[in-house]
Amino acid sequence: VLHTTRPLHTTQQSLAPVPPLPEKGGEVRHGVIPEEFFQFLYPKTGVTGPYMLGTGLLLYFLSKEIYVVNHETAAAACILTVIVYAIKKFGPDVAAFADKLNEEKVATAQAMKDEAMQSLQTAIEQEKKEQWRAEGRSYLFDAKRNNIAMLLEANYRERLLTVYNEVKKRLDYQVAMQTLKRQKEQDHMIQWVEKNVIQSITPQQQKESIAKCILDLKALSKSAHAAV
Amino acid sequence: GPLSERPLMEVRLGELHTWISTCNFSPQGLLGAVQRAWSSYCAKYIHVKQGGPAGISMLLAGYCLLSYGWNYQHFSKTSYISGI
After folding, report:
1. Are residues B36 and B8 in the same domain?
2. A87 at B interface, C-beta within 8 A
3. In terms of residue numbers, what domain contains B2?
4. How far is A91 from chain B (nearest CA, A)?
5. B40 to chain A, closest Cα gap in Å
6. Which of A18, A168, A178, A196 has a C-alpha 20 to 30 A away from that of A121?
7. DSSP H helix total and E strand total for chain B
8. pTM (2 decimals)?
9. Residue A174 at interface with chain B, using a CB cutoff of 8 Å
10. Are residue B27 and residue B67 in the same domain, yes or no?
11. CA A127 – CA A130 distance, rounded (Å)
12. Does A32 touch chain B if contact means CB atoms closer than 8 Å?
């Protein structure tokens, strides 16, 4: 939980960014004596003071045999000569080589940093593009609303058609039922009338009707003969 | 600044006595003092962009002096008047 009222970075010390290394180290004279010693003695004794002090100390140590001269002294002298000669001759080359190594390290770090910056920059641009794209959301929503309205309308009309078809089917059924019933009643009535009429014609009536028909036909044939 | 927090190089000769009395001589104090001295030496002569031979040569010279001091008894007794 971060309390927003707590102040951040109020102290001087912070771990990052690390301050860069100093360019040159402390000054050292003749390789072993720091410059501060010479500066310390300068106000009182001038420039030659430390050298006089060194000479005096050396003679004192030699004379009192605090420093014993033996075979190791000769060895130390030779070794020191060789070391000083080597440093004077190969020093600058080694320094250049070390500087080159340092340069490469710094260059790789710088390249990484630049790459990171570049990727972040492209990320920012893409983000801005996405924000611009999001501004068109009103068009998208309008199109979607239109789609949905059309779907609803189509669905409504389909159902309306279904309802119409169903109602028509039921009504047709009722109409067919009524026609069928009337037809059946008609047929039945006709049949019943015919049956009763045929039953009511007795044989006596049949003979009389046949005789009457023959008389009528004769009369008709007479009139036809007369017409011709 | 206050006396007890100044490093040794900035203490004047007259105040040396009081400065030593404010020093912390427990093991942790001594260890801390050694560590501080070593890290300040490193920061001044070794962790720089262009150091010279000075950083290690001073350490070597100090080592030579120390070993001379430890073996002084042995040096002083060696005799060169050997086969007479």
Report:
1. yes
2. yes
3. 1-51
4. 8
5. 11
6. A18
7. 4, 0
8. 0.57
9. no
10. no
11. 5
12. yes
